[in-house]
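Section 5: illustrative case.
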C-alpha cells in the first residue's frame, strides 16, 4: 500500500515536471531562435549599411545584396528582380524608389535591429535607420521586416513601412504592394 502511494506521488510529480517543461520549452526555443535571427540580421544589415555609408562603384544595391546573401523569400526575390528589369526598361527606376533595406535613400549610421518577436508562423523584426540620431528634426519611423521560414532558413518576405502625411495621419504600406505597383 505504501509503495503504491509513493509510486502514484512519483508519477504525479513526473507528470507535472514534464508538463511544465513541455509548456516552457517552446518559449525558450523561440527566444533562442529570435536571438539567433537578431544576431544574423544585425550583422548583415550592419555590413550592408557600410556600402550605403561609404559607397563605391562596386557597392551592391539592396536587391543585389539581398539576393547574394539569400535573405529574401523566393516570392520577394522574384518581385525584386522584376522591379530591377522594369527599372532598366524605364531608364533607371521601377516601382521602388528607395532602398528597402534602410528605409530611405540616405543613412548616417548603420541600421539597427531593435527587436525580433514571434508572430504565428512568422517573425517580425523591427529595424531603425537611426535618422533621429543624426538629425534632431528628422522623423524616424521604425520599419518591420516580416520573416518566413523557407527550408529551415528565416528570410525576409515583406517589409512594413509607415510615415506621417502632411495632415499628421500615419500611412502604412508594404514592400510587396510597392513592387506590385499598388502604392504610389
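Designed sequence:
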Amino acid at each position: 500500500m505504501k509503495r503504491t502511494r509513493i509510486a502514484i506521488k512519483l508519477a504525479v510529480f513526473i507528470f507535472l515536471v514534464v508538463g511544465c517543461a513541455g509548456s516552457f520549452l517552446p518559449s525558450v526555443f523561440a527566444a533562442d531562435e529570435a536571438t539567433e535571427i537578431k544576431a544574423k540580421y544585425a550583422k548583415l544589415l550592419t555590413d550592408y549599411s557600410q556600402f550605403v555609408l561609404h559607397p563605391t562603384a562596386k557597392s551592391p544595391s539592396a536587391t543585389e545584396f539581398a539576393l547574394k546573401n539569400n535573405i529574401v523569400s523566393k516570392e520577394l526575390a522574384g518581385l525584386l528582380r522584376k522591379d530591377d528589369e522594369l527599372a532598366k526598361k524605364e531608364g533607371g527606376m521601377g516601382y521602388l524608389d528607395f532602398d528597402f533595406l534602410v528605409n530611405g535613400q540616405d543613412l548616417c549610421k548603420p541600421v539597427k535591429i531593435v527587436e525580433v518577436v514571434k508572430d504565428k508562423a512568422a517573425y517580425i523584426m523591427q529595424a531603425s535607420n537611426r535618422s533621429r540620431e543624426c538629425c534632431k528634426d528628422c522623423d524616424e519611423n521604425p520599419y518591420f521586416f516580416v520573416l518566413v521560414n523557407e527550408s529551415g532558413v528565416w528570410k525576409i518576405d515583406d517589409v512594413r513601412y509607415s510615415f506621417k502625411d502632411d495632415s499628421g495621419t500615419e500611412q502604412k504600406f508594404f514592400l510587396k504592394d510597392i513592387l506590385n505597383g499598388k502604392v504610389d
